[in-house]
Amino acid sequence: RMRVLACVRFAAHKGLGQVRLASSSSQKKYVDLREDRGIYTTDPINYNEAKFDKILIANRGEIACRVIKTARAMGIKTVAVHSDVDSNSLHVRLADEAVCVGPAPTSQSYLRVDKILQAVKDTGAQAVHPGYGFLSENTHFAADLEKIGVKFVGPNSKAILDMGDKINSKKIAAAAKVNMIPGFDGEIADEDMCVKVANDIGYPVMIKASAGGGGKGMRIAWNDKEAREGYSLSKQEAKSSFGDDRMLVEKFIDNPRHIEMQVLCDKHGNSLWLNERECSIQRRNQKVIEEAPSSFVTPEMRRAMGEQSVQLARAVGYDSAGTVEFLVDGKRNFYFLEMNTRLQVEHPITESITGIDIVQQMLRVSYGHKLNLTQEQVPLQGWAFESRVYAEDPYKGFGLPSVGRLSRYVEPNHIEGVRCDSGIREGSEISIYYDPLICKLVSHGKDRPQALARMRDALDGYVIRGVTHNIPLLRDICQEQRFNEGRITTKYLPEVYPEGFMGAQLNVDEQDKVLAMAAALNARKIARSKQFKNQKRQRTTYVDPYQMTFKFVAELPAEEGQGKAVAVEVKFDKGDDKEARVTLNGKTIAISGDMNLAQPIIDLKADGKALTTQIVGKKAGEITVVYKGTNFKVKVLPEHAIEYIKHMKPKAKVDLSSVVLSPMPGAIKSVAVKVGDMVSEGQQLIVIEAMKMQNGLHAGKTGKVKSVTVKEGQTVDEGELLVELE
């Protein structure tokens, strides 16, 4: 037994995916390490098949870790590249070798083709996997690799060129008889042309970068003013993100669904479609929650979308994994949007419902192997969701970036059917230089309700401290009625949250449950502090705190839209610190479970019903608990203290119309005003960039500029004063 364990550990250290053990009966036994390695496939790896010896991953974060895991399972050595601030990142630690390619800014590191090519030569890598973003759709990079005899783990450079150019891709798609959106067939030269074309097509229009993707370099315009501003901002974003600022304009289909089809092709003319993904929950054209399959797609529609996707792939000689994106109207008409010639962010949910490791297939195909399955062998097994957990503040425009260090980090891997694709760990730093993605949280189940229930449990059991994150929004979406019924479009967020996201809204019973839970935990904290451990004391001088009755006044603060202060009484049953009875508002709620205040996750029951919470803050008179993903600061005070609070003056509110504050940490891209200038309400004053996204900041009223505290290129913190008006 010890020999078997030693063998398995050695194989895991070497990155092997499977170990053959010979027994005395000459039978072959296999220990599969793929589950431990994080590989998601039901198709066994053929270790006798020829493969690369070493590959380089030209990316960072979770996608670099994802590629490394599959490569190691296949017995392929890996090389990581990194910027100087990423030198201690998880993907660097997982790889067999690592090469620093420059300082933190992407333009000086991850986008430096010359440095990455030099790293390829220095390490002897036979292939490069680009992941997504960065150089993944850079046709020059792919061509440069071909010139030095190194494989690009992706499509050929011609296919990238044809599909990466949104203008040219439309012409090819139309010729391949793929359903098309009405639009202008050509490049938009300037703002005036943008306005003219928009008026010819008819508002609303979508302004987007020809080389764009991932929601960057895209704006929706409903009038001439928005068209001019959207063109300018999108063009700047496109140049910063892709090095290509060509723009196009097309008709914006109002209230559509965003549904995409995963395709997989080899170099021998074989092409497959691996079912669809629904990506309609978006903010700023970036996906928030995806699912596979779509509840809106019928089997006939699925086949039609798949066949058109494969037609397009064949038309451009596609030979890797790719995604064809469609807009779908309410009558199930679908229109070609674009083709992403790379591994898609949300590929894990396709892997979950098909059992096909897409990264493994990309590596096989790039080496020259044929696809090892046919269209008829592609299954559709169950349902899967992916929640993109970001370091963002969901209360600001559904998510503005946040920065900081992860002081506590626990992934919910203990929940059945849950997969966490992340590139960080406790202690990792979320900086302004890169995408704020923390993790791609994936749940899989036999059907949609089970997969969704597992996602809710996973979000409740996810511990993130040190940065603001968007779990409150994700958790609220997962319990919202429209989402549960599958009635979603790309307008879902502004329609469901017209005033913006304001946290979970509780009914009366839920308010009482939160108050009871907070009061019980607070009583547990006080009782623990009154205990004397390992001391000999006279019983006559000792009172067991768990035999006491705790009386509080509890309140959910008014700014969270909840009720007023209520009297609460807490008693522990028979001196047991795991059983409490809480009386409030004329009813008694039984709170039971391990109330260990040191645990990051506390599993309780309220009147017998399961309740998962976290304590994210404790101070005198206040305890902050998590319920349904949202933090609730509950005041739990002695009865007499509430009278004193009534006499405390509230903080004076700042006149935000006279100032422009930074909504997030970032870098100032441009300053359009100076001291003494007259500005009108709504005029753009500052453009700030964070995590490769640009945001225009506008004047809240008409007036004269009193002060400008920043200049172009300066980095600022959230809440910092940028411009002040008289």
TrEMBL record:
InterPro entries per record: ATP-grasp, ATP_grasp_subdomain_1, BC-like_N, Biotin_BS, Biotin_carboxylase_complex, Biotin_carboxylation_dom, Biotin_COase_C, Biotin_lipoyl
Domain of life: Eukaryota
Keyword Chaperone in annotation: no
Main location: mitochondrion
Pathway given in the UniProt record: Metabolic intermediate metabolism; propanoyl-CoA degradation; succinyl-CoA from propanoyl-CoA: step 1/3
The ATP-grasp domain, residue ranges: 170-367
Subcellular location: Mitochondrion matrix
A GO MF label: metal ion binding
Keyword set includes ATP-binding: yes
Needed cofactors: biotin
GO BP annotations listed: lipid catabolic process
Enzyme Commission number(s): 6.4.1.3
Domain Biotin carboxylation: from-to ranges: 51-498
Pfam families found in the cross-reference section: Biotin_carb_C, Biotin_carb_N, Biotin_lipoyl, CPSase_L_D2, PCC_BT
One GO CC annotation: mitochondrial matrix
Keyword annotations from UniProtKB, A to Z: ATP-binding, Biotin, Ligase, Lipid degradation, Lipid metabolism, Magnesium, Manganese, Metal-binding, Mitochondrion, Nucleotide-binding, Transit peptide
Residue ranges annotated for the Lipoyl-binding domain, each copy included: 651-726
UniProt function note: This is one of the 2 subunits of the biotin-dependent propionyl-CoA carboxylase (PCC), a mitochondrial enzyme involved in the catabolism of odd chain fatty acids, branched-chain amino acids isoleucine, threonine, methionine, and valine and other metabolites. Propionyl-CoA carboxylase catalyzes the carboxylation of propionyl-CoA/propanoyl-CoA to D-methylmalonyl-CoA/(S)-methylmalonyl-CoA.
Protein name, UniProt field: Propionyl-CoA carboxylase alpha chain, mitochondrial
Organism in which the protein naturally occurs: Pristionchus fissidentatus
